[in-house]
Amino acid sequence: MPTCPLCDATRTRHFLRDARRDYYRCERCLLAFVPPEQRIASEAEKAVYDQHQNRPDDPDYRRFLARLFEPLMDRLLPGACGLDFGAGPGPTLSLMFEEAGHPMAIYDPFYAPDRAVLDRRYDFVTATEVAEHLFLPGREFERLAALLPAGGWLGVMTKRVISEEAFARWHYILDPTHVCFFSEASFEWLAERLGMHVEFPAADVALLQKQ
């Protein structure tokens, strides 16, 4: 069985095969994931992202991001500095925070690959529609949590697994770049691992505060 990419457990089990690939689930953190050998190449991955039509001037896209933006804004001190991790080809969430008075940095391995921003400290970090793409989410979230002081926030937006029965009919698994699928239990495990408190203020949103 493949090792869990979130918690590194070896207690994983196969639970689904569709027309394209297999899906496993960790028995410790309940992350569902695609095995490494069935991930697509980085060139094909970027080709999918290049097709995204997310634009800062799109009000519907801003309303979508507001599910994370609004509850996180309620928890930030004035002038708090943030990092938008995985900003994509059309950074928008970072602009929304800047418009609200929060200085922002952005990082994206394809579109904003300056890793120097990952050596700084931030009051909050956001990752919207990113977690499902991560090959090693455990290591990535450990790295992001290390950028935060006590009391800092990590805001994550990704659709969550409800049940294995629903998983087989879930449109979210049809995207070939989606390789990790979190449940609430996965975030609860992650929060405990990172010394953080987690809450779920809106659909698909998890806010983790460093203790």
TrEMBL record:
Q: Does the keyword Methyltransferase apply?
A: yes
- Pfam families registered for this protein in UniProt: Methyltransf_23 (PF13489)
Q: Which domain of life is it from?
A: Bacteria
Under the heading InterPro entries, the entry gives:
SAM-dependent_MTases_sf (IPR029063)
GO biological processes: methylation
Q: Which UniProt keywords apply?
A: Methyltransferase, Transferase
Q: Per UniProt, what is one GO molecular function of this protein?
A: methyltransferase activity
- Answer yes or no on keyword Oxidoreductase: no
Question: What is the designated name of this protein?
Answer: Class I SAM-dependent methyltransferase
- Biological classification of the source: Bacteria, Pseudomonadati, Pseudomonadota, Gammaproteobacteria, Oceanospirillales
